Amino acid sequence: MFKAKAYSAASKTSPLASAAIPRRDPTERDVQIDILFCGICHSDLHYARDEWHEVMPAVYPCVPGHEIVGCVTKVGSAVTRYQAGDLVGIGCLVDSDHTCRHCQEELEQFCPGMVLTYGSPDRHGTAPVTYGGYSDSIVVDERFVLRIPPNLDPAGAAPLLCAGITTYSPMRHWKVGEGKKVGVVGLGGLGHMGVKFAHAFGAHTVVFTTSPGKTEDAKRLGADEVVVSKNADEMRKHAGSFDFILDCVAAPHDVNAYINLLARDGNLTMVGAPDKPLPVAVFGLIFGRRSFSGSPIGGLAETQEMLDFCGRHNITADVEVIPVQKINEAYERMVRSDVKYRFSIDMASLKSE
Question: Phi first, then psi: what are they for 256, rounded to 5°?
Fold first, then answer.
């Protein structure tokens, strides 16, 4: 066991602050990684402030972070996939039961025994729960380590490990591609990745936003059209025409307005997670054989596929790089949606702690 530098929260009302945390020495199947960058996901804030207490109660001290890019420094004796010096990533999962049908189908994100990168019971007994990427190093089973294409900027690649795969996975599942008309609702951390992927897949991409000022940026990211969703006339023009809509909005909103835009057999998938139930008018689904679904992250194989796709198309998240000392300020800005479009922490800043 060794000590790593990190930023952690001591309680739901405490700011994140410098701390030392335990990390296990690598076992024969483990990879030790020096963390270069870690993206900030809204779920980090929810967990640190115990806002998901009913479904995922926080255990303190907590170290968030599941959008990790780093460099391999040490590997166990049985590791075959990686060696020192490799640029790698860690996403939302660091283990699973490996035996259930979900794991056998490479859908580890549905495994009942999955171990999250932070906040899950630590099977190795190093700490009460797993500690995430707001740290200078991490040790992970090689099966949950991903290869980062060397042409990608590591700061911008970090959010691909959550925001990227969260938007890529449902598009692959619903076969987004050329000849399809795809909508992306909300242009934030998730939505801006959805636009980039839909465009790269060759779909006709339409962004829905409540902010007319986002039109230019949406088109820069790859949108063919931008619809201001508050404009009823603009919305009506698209009625019954979408093959797929990705809804990235985490606040309460009228999903029926978007269901009515779906073509026959069209699908609307939620990746935003409003904290209150959304009313759904069932007749909007019945007439047109439309479907309404949700999607989490992807499995390990699909996440690697996504990273390789990003390497071929030179796709990264639009990030603002910050030192770890500005993490609490970044959380407050994130609440105000004051970032385009993700924060990425430069972990070299931990060296001054």
Answer: -65, -30
Phi, psi for residue 247 in degrees, rounded to 5? -100, 115
Distance CA 201, CA 309 (A): 10
Angstrom distance (rounded) from CA 257 to CA 244: 14
Fold of 166-294: Rossmann fold (3.40.50)
Considering only CA atoms, which of 225, 170, 227 is closest in space to residue 197? 170
> How do the domains of the chain map onto residue ranges?
2-162+298-352, 166-294
Domain 2-162+298-352: CATH superfamily, name plus number: Medium-chain alcohol dehydrogenases, catalytic domain (3.90.180.10)
pLDDT of residue 275: 80
Per-residue pLDDT tens for 78-103?
999 999 999 999 999 999 999 999 99
- Of 81, 44, 77, 60, the residue nearest 12 (C-alpha): 60
- Say if residues 150 and 308 touch (Cβ distance below 8 Å): no
What number of other Cβ atoms are within 10 A of residue 314's Cβ? 11
The DSSP code for 9 is B
From residue 214, alpha-carbon distances to 159, 184, 208, 243, 339 in Å are 21, 13, 10, 23, 13
Mean pLDDT, residues 243-260 taken together: 96
Compute how many other C-beta atoms are within 10 angstroms of the C-beta atom of residue 264.
Answer: 10
Quote the pTM value: 0.96
Coil, helix or strand at residue 261: coil
